[in-house]
Amino acid sequence: MKTNTFSRIGFILAAAGSAVGLGNIWKFPYVTGENGGGAFVLLYIIAITFIGLSIFIAESYIGKEAKANAASSYQVISKTNNKNWRWAGFQIFAGIIILSFYAFIIGWIIEYLIISITGLPTTIKEAEDTFTNLITQKIGTQILFHTLVVATMVFIALKGIKAGIEKLNLILMPLLALILFGLLIYSMSLDSFGKAINFMFMPDWSKVTVDSILAAIGQAFFTLSLGMGIIITYSASMGKDTNFIKSSVFVAIVDTAVALIAGIIIFSFLFAAGAKSTAGPGLVFISLPLIFSEWGIFGQVIAVAFFCALLFAGITSAVSLVEPSVRYLIEKFQMSRIKAVFYTATFLWILGIFALLSMSADYGEMLTFFGKSLFDHMDYLTSSVALPISGFVTCIFLGYFVDKNVLKTKFTSVTSVAVFNIWYALIRYIVPIAIAILFFNKLGLIG
Ligand code: PHE
Ligand code: NA
């Protein structure tokens, strides 16, 4: 086999590429807007530091020790080598389901990239219709771009870890940083910049509810790509000289920085136009295009830059979602990489088409059951059910089914005893309890 491990910088960039995604540039700003700004940002930072980072470190450890796919990894390092731990691999499947819709959402971004060039909507009605029409009417366009995105992922995945994933991130991540930096500088020149900073960093505690605390924890999970075997799989290809604690901290910092910067940029733009911060998911696809169009030709340039940033962030995340399944199939069935990529891609391509059809005007009804569209079911079953469960499983696994002395030895070879003790307490008690509360609340059983 070709050398299929990451270089040190390659691993860090790829993990950061997976983390930095639509969650940072699309979801974080609108969730912050919906939850009143500053106080939510603070809760989010706390959730990342204590919950997100400790699970990130946990997944990183599991992958790097086991050097296997995200299913066998659990078995390999469990105290008793118990075969049942392989079931933790269900998260690989959750990842593929997420990817099937992540792919066509990236497709929407491609459509908006084109709209940015050919002409942006000029009234709020037109902006809303553009978005609604895309989702409910333009099936052909959506399938076309969905296919294009899946094909891109196949192309990268076939090249493997080093020549595919690492190289892609080596190119796209610096470009993404450059665009965001440029947009940040531009937002600083707007009068509304100060207002955006205030909105994001002056906590208004009256806005904090149980829901916003839970939203912060949920977002911490999603934004760091946890609970889908991604970090385990990437870490299994980590080079020997990579410090898994340092790289985890670094990725969490980069991911948080990008979310904050995206928030500052977007709120500066919104406030400059006197727009509201509470538009929800339509923030990026409805509110922003309208503002860009008010800025004329220059606005189109900004729009292209913005949607390129979103596209690059999305692609590097999408690519990371393919690898857990590919590695699993290769190891479990001794498949060739080509076959593994082919099966994975075909499955998610078809599932994605059904999901996008479930939101269309013509086929929506056929693909709606128990009162929700297929897409809503997929989103709910993964983000609200599978992800918290797999985070919980990972905590319980390391906290109770892996030898503490082994963990301690491995951790203290790269960090202090104090850091290990804090991490261990978090993983064993605090994080599983937090996840359990989150989980039961989302299911509507408490709160
Ligand atoms: N972390 C990515 C983001 O913030 C989302 C993602 C989730 C990517 C799961 C891969 C897997 O957008
Ligand atoms: Na993220």
Automatic annotation (TrEMBL):
Keywords attached to this entry? Membrane, Symport, Transmembrane, Transmembrane helix, Transport
Q: Name one Pfam family in it.
A: SNF
Q: Which NCBIfam families match?
A: Na_transp
Q: How does it sit in the membrane?
A: Multi-pass membrane protein
* Family of the protein in this entry: Belongs to the sodium:neurotransmitter symporter (SNF) (TC 2.A.22) family.
What is the name attached to this protein's record? Transporter
| GO MF annotation list | symporter activity
Compartments (UniProt record): Membrane
Keyword Membrane: yes or no? yes
Any one of the GO CC terms? membrane
